[in-house]
């Protein structure tokens, strides 16, 4: 049994704000160590529960945060960018399930450091379904017929996962007070919770169905500023919905929709406000 792990950073216990997740700020090295420790609890229990292979994809920012020298020695790690499929790089139909660790809520909703890829984004939609990073990644897993069996992160990410994926196991390692304040489990308590939930998720994986994406999905991205929409609209095949900052793209499948999202957000990030 092969398990896929996508590990983000904002949903790791003990990390309340960007000083822990921004490589230029003073708490970042502490954040990396705690992130690696949380990933290891999940990896260790995955092997203990019968997995033959665990592939870990570092999924935060420049995607080189996990400390490989501290990572469980039997896991394989994808690190660095640019990756054609970003947070789900390496995921394919050979995996029995996927787990998302350190995840946060989508943009424009409550949650610790909630956002969707870049701060220019207000909302992502696949057809009419609002999604964040969690949803886009789950739909991409579903394209390969792989169920997302567990999501770990803050309480709002857990709620988002439960609303989107029936029977998914969630592990809330911290509780939102505000976007930059949290009530956290200690690393030891978080580890016990992650171990317990990983074992449960693997025992019950057959109760979770893949989140099947539409055959020809329409990706819509609502931006905060019209200039961002203009930049995103430079990608061929896109159009700005009149009177809005929403840019739409008709994709041939979920993989194309995912890569379109990457291109559109990278373009929108070029916007100048001066």
UniProtKB/TrEMBL annotation:
Q: Which Gene3D superfamilies match?
A: Dipeptide transport protein (3.30.1360.130)
Positions of transmembrane segments: none
- Domain of life according to the entry: Bacteria
Database matches in Pfam families: Peptidase_M55
Its recorded name reads D-alanyl-aminopeptidase
- Please tell me the species this chain comes from: Bacillus atrophaeus (strain 1942)
